[in-house]
Amino acid sequence: MSTPGPRVLRPGEAAPDFTLPAVHRAGTVSLGDYRGRSALFIAFFRGIYCPFCRRQIAKLGLSRDKLLAAGVETLAVVASNLDRTRMYFQYRPTRVPLAADPEMITHRAFGITKAPITEELLNALQTTRIDVMGELPRPLPIAEAAEALREKDRFELTETDTREAEQQFPMDVGQFLVDRGGIVRWANMELQREGLAGMGKFPSEEELLAVARAHGS
Question: Where along the chain do its domains lie?
Answer without folding.
Answer: 19-115+157-215
